[in-house]
Design a protein that fits this description.
Two copies of one chain form a homodimer.
Chain A: H1 14-23, E1 31-36, H2 50-61, E2 65-71, H3 83-106, E3 113-116, H4 122-126, E4 133-134, H5 144-148, E5 161-170, E6 173-176, E7 199-201, E8 208-212, E9 217-220, E10 233-238, H6 241-247, E11 250-255, E12 258-264
Parallel strand pairs in A: 1-2, 2-3, 3-4
Antiparallel strand pairs in A: 5-6, 5-10, 6-9, 7-10, 8-9, 11-12
């Protein structure tokens, strides 16, 4: 399924480049290094154009690094609900990245990789001339945030949390056994938010997960009455799949209602 | 440090009691079972008084359960910033619980345990007549939320996240290598919120952690200039310590600037 796994580093400052080169000093081969470019997210990365060329020169001059190209993350697409506006903004960012790659070629530093990525609108970027690599991440599962953005329909969302109704103490309130330690309090990435619920309950989109404690999810029911009962199993598409997968240590893999495997989440808790 | 570890269950419905009794059928001894009482949080639990007595009778009649008393969680204290109002509300809830225990005694169902818990204001509850057990949880670490409530000073907060500044691409913005997979997007429990930051940076309370991506924390710096530099280590007291501990798989234990141990977080990822 995968090609060769390559370790790639992505510094965006002279200090980062120096630290990286020191860290791999003595390695058998130089570390492939891309310069991280800020194409509009305003998080990490340097401006396209001259600032990127300056850093690429620094990478090329570093003793234990090899300049491998440029990369960007169009995370700002999460904050743009209008599909046309989103596509236009993402394309503009990627155009700046491709132009920077051309400027690098012109000074003798060809960018073997021009790498872009962010799930919403990635389709519009994948075929742009000059792009050599895409890194959309959320698409592995999709989630309610992507549904809200129109990037995926609900039935394409592959990560589901099964929760049990454990309390129904008031007419308009029930409680499930999934709280922030399962669903996370994440309401959306990069400014995009999914209003009203901490997840979509499949087939019960009328019920909102209004509030989360650590081990409890508070359901807001129709005050006129609801057929939700203690013991019911609810299937939830989380708002943001990535941190939800990170909280689990094992995923149960289901195809056509049959359990076909269990996957360990090998990277859970490995942030150091 | 600990007494005997006792497994106690806390149902709050007839269905829950029946399911619990079935689940432990055949056990060597009956399961000690407390009735969960809703003293004002409005999450799980039944109303104090007659509804609790009714459930206690159901527990006592269940073949594999033994009625052990009543318990409540005064989580609503998190939503009351005024200390006097908080204490008064918590006391009123606990008084209702104690009165319910008295009503249970009067019908021949003495409550061996009258158990209360919620870190803010627990001191006011611990000595109330009739209370036999307290379960404050957050006090093990404390956090910025408790500081905001006046329940603990910052230097009593024992859980710290060490993060490194990895980018400083704009005058008013730097980025650390701790995001929502480390600090969580949790802004406070039960309605209480800590405005303006995803954590308190010790000694740098002027710097706000304004936004989190999964692996990045966005620092808002003084636009007039800041001495924050790439490579700086920042010590962060998280907003809510509980989900932060749950995300780590190991805690490094420090006393007087010396590492004296490493604790595995045995329960991480064990929500099923």
């Amino acid at each position: 399924m995968c090609g060769k796994l390559t370790v790639v580093s992505k510094p965006s400052s002279h200090q980062g480049i120096a630290a990286l080169s020191d860290a791999v000093a003595g390695a058998a081969e130089p570390l492939e290094t891309l310069v991280k470019v800020d194409t509009g997210l305003g998080r990490v990365g340097v401006a396209p154009g001259a600032a990127t060329v300056d850093l690429a020169r620094s990478v090329a001059a570093a003793p234990w690094l090899r300049f491998g190209g440029v990369c960007a993350h169009e995370g700002f697409t999460y904050g743009l609900p209008d599909p046309e506006e989103r596509t236009a903004a993402a394309r503009a960012g990627v155009e700046a990245l491709v132009e920077t790659a051309e400027a690098l070629s012109a000074v003798g530093l060809p960018a073997a990789r021009v790498s872009v990525g962010a799930t919403p609108g990635i389709n519009a970027l994948a075929t742009m001339p000059g792009v050599t690599e895409i890194r959309p991440g959320n698409y592995v599962f999709y989630d309610a945030m992507q549904v809200g953005l129109g990037a995926a329909p609900l039935d394409h969302c592959a990560l589901r949390v099964l929760a049990t109704v454990v309390s129904h103490a008031a007419r308009d309130r029930a409680v499930i056994d999934a709280g922030s330690k399962t669903l996370t309090t994440d309401r959306g990435a990069h400014g995009q938010t999914t209003a009203g619920s901490y997840g979509v309950i499949v087939g019960r989109e009328d019920i909102h997960i209004e509030r989360l404690s650590e081990e409890h999810g508070w359901l807001r029911l129709d005050p006129a009455g609801s057929d939700v009962e203690i013991g019911d199993t609810l299937e939830i598409v989380p708002v943001h799949a990535c941190p939800v997968a990170n909280l689990a240590h094992e995923l149960t893999v289901v195809r056509d209602d049959t359990v076909i495997g269990r996957w360990a989440v090998a990277a859970a808790g490995q942030v150091r």
